[in-house]
Write a structure and sequence with these properties.
The protein contains seven helices and no strands. By secondary structure, it is mainly alpha-helical. The radius of gyration is 27 Å and the shape is rod-shaped.
């Protein structure tokens, strides 16, 4: 798997700056300290000369020392932040609604069904969350007109 080397360069520099206090130094001194630190760890003075494995190892070292925050898994972040129905759910609902002979997602019959299913005064399919959308789709599939 190919890594984004530029992202690793940035992370390593950011972590080293935090670990070594480079932001409190004069630019020339900070550069010298950073390159000396890098040479001690990797025998190279520039991240561009490192292999992908060396870049990963250096990033992991900085994370272990607390100079970089450990990344949160993307899937976990998205599920907590985004509870909106998926595009697949909208497509499925549209297909089920059309199979009932209704005009579409704005059909008054669908609005009534949503209100009965969710027990809320929800008049639009676009106000549903993922769980509610799933319940509406399942209910419509089981419902005989």
């Amino acid at each position: 798997m190919q890594i984004n080397r530029n992202a690793y360069y940035g992370l390593i520099h950011k972590g080293a700056a935090s670990l070594l206090g480079l932001n409190q130094m004069l630019p020339d001194d900070a550069d010298a300290v950073y390159r000396h630190w890098l040479k001690q760890r990797t025998s190279k003075t520039s991240c561009k000369d490192l292999t992908d494995a060396q870049l990963k190892a250096l990033k992991n070292l900085l994370e272990a020392k607390g100079a970089l925050p450990k990344p949160v898994a993307k899937a976990q972040q998205q599920t907590r932040q985004n509870n909106n129905p998926t595009n697949k759910q909208y497509k499925k609902l549209t297909a089920v609604v059309k199979s009932k002979g209704w005009s579409g997602l704005g059909a008054p019959e669908l609005a009534g069904f949503i209100q009965r299913t969710t027990q809320q005064q929800c008049v639009s399919v676009y106000q549903l969350d993922r769980r509610q959308m799933s319940n509406v789709i399942t209910g419509l599939e089981k419902w005989k007109v």
